[in-house]
Amino acid sequence: MISANGVTLRFGGRVLFEDVNITFTEGNCYGLIGANGTGKTTFLKVLSGEIEPSKGEVTMPEGKRLAVLKQNHFEFDEYTVLDTVIMGHRRLYNIMKEKESLYAKPDFNDDDGVKLSELEAEFAELNGWDAETDAEKLLNGVGIAPENHNKYMKELEAKDKVKVLLAQALFGNPDVLLLDEPTNHLDIKTVRWLENFLTNFENTVIVVSHDRHFLNNVCTHIADIDYNKIQLYTGNYDFWYESSQLALRQAKEANKKAEAKIKELQEFIQRFSANASKSKQATSRKKWLDKIQLEEIKPSSRKYPYIDFKPDREAGDHILDVKNLTLTVDGEKVLNNISFSLNREDKVAFVGTNSLAKTALFRVLMGELTPDSGEIKWGITTSQAYLPSDNSKYFDNVNLNLVEWLRQYSKDETETFLRGWLGRMLFSGEEALKQVNVLSGGEKVRCMLAKMMLSGANVLIFDEPTNHLDLESITALNNGMAAFKGTMLFTSHDYQLVDTIANRIMEITPDGLIDRQMTYEEYLEQQNI
């Protein structure tokens, strides 16, 4: 258990949190959510003691241990992988090293013997004899092969360092576990393992994540940062989202009878309560849901962009034919004899471990790269719009404001029209006059989405579209992609987006392309993931 009592945090004249009182209890997993800039990561740092609040305090019962997922991937470069994991329990690690030092003393004396006896007792109490075995199990779970366990951290690739630091945070059964974006850079197999680990974790977890499927699978509660406060809700992310949207609709329809509103909300809660059997804590979660008071569910202040892709014309039957496509990049064959054809309503998710291959394929399809060999033939009725994973060329060294930038891609060049589109993407008033070269990553992606919507294309290509976006924008994008009636090719690490959009999965392998007419969940089941 950990509590924030009257916590206020100010940076200069800006108030991030005001008199926050919240308790996170044992046996629950809390998803900490909030729009970009509301202070999710900062609040985790307040809880961990890394940042002192301006007022108030954080308390945890004496003798309890808190673990944090480290973000500095170079901090442990001079330590072995195994030692790095065990360092997640710092007291245990220090005892191990002190014991080693005493045993190695050439002039071992009686005082050393007494000290060693005390250390051995504490070592046994902390389950130290199983430390290496437990660390190895965690490393195997996150996908670090046994032959890498005794390597130095500096010898690992960045993606494997992330996994080791995750194992470090999980090591030693901490009483409170703080995880900031734990699924970043993880493959789907490791994410599934982590979901299972947290589902069975019996202590307190507080997690920040933009992965909605992950939040839905592991969270028993949502802690929502809004209006400089933190409001606690029972249930997972989808329950919070649907209930907040329902509350917002009801607030806008004040002329309806109160009884009708209450009935609708009660039916909604009962529907979610009935589905609680899908979670590990079915019984307890249902009890919590049954106790929800209507006034607990309030409209959120956060805004969602309006994303709606409407083709100017419907494409014909011939969309795209790719035959025997081969491409070499920097001496590496990333595409090897790729062939496929697209149908009019295909929504294809490209999967595979080589992200360079997927990006290269999209760039070839858009004419940005020339293949070594092969043929690409777009249908004459098709038009394409592309969201690249790297959009820097559209913004860097560009001396334009947002209105001027969007005008380049619009048939209607009037300021009123362009401001309307920018308003849809949450750039209203003076925001529409910001210089594009100072935009954040998420703002640039929203601009690119506006550009795509204005194109009226009937074929959309997305390369990791959720990168840099907050949960609100990801949700809006997911809805917009689902509603699109044309053909779509995309790649994404967002499980929920892939699973709700794709009706066809194409896996790029070193030997070619494997094409499957199925959903993402069906594909994962087939791959035994």
In order across it, which strands form the biggest sheet? 5-6-7-3-8-9
Largest pleated sheet: 6 strands, mixed
- Give the oligomer, counting copies of the same chain as homo and different chains as hetero: single chain
Specify the number of helices: 18
Describe this structure in words.
α3 (90-103) runs antiparallel to α4 and α10 runs antiparallel to α11 (282-290). β10 (320-329) and β11 form a beta hairpin. The strands form four sheets. The chain has a six-stranded mixed beta sheet, sandwiched between helices. A six-stranded mixed beta sheet has the order 14-15-16-12-17-18, sandwiched between helices. Strands 2-1-4 form a three-stranded antiparallel beta sheet, with no helix packed on it. It has helices at 40-48, 81-86, 90-103, 110-125, 131-141, 158-170, 188-199, 212-218, 237-252, 258-274, 282-290, 355-365, 402-407, 415-424, 441-455, 471-483, 495-501, 520-526, and strands at 2-11, 14-24, 29-33, 55-59, 66-68, 176-180, 204-208, 221-226, 229-234, 320-329, 332-342, 347-351, 373-378, 384-387, 459-463, 487-491, 504-509, 512-516. It is of the alpha/beta class. Helices cover 38% and strands 21% of the residues. It has 18 helices and 18 strands. It folds into three domains: 1-64 and 175-301, P-loop containing nucleotide triphosphate hydrolases (Rossmann fold, 3-Layer(aba) Sandwich), CATH 3.40.50.300; 74-163, no CATH class; 320-396 and 452-526, Rossmann fold (3-Layer(aba) Sandwich).
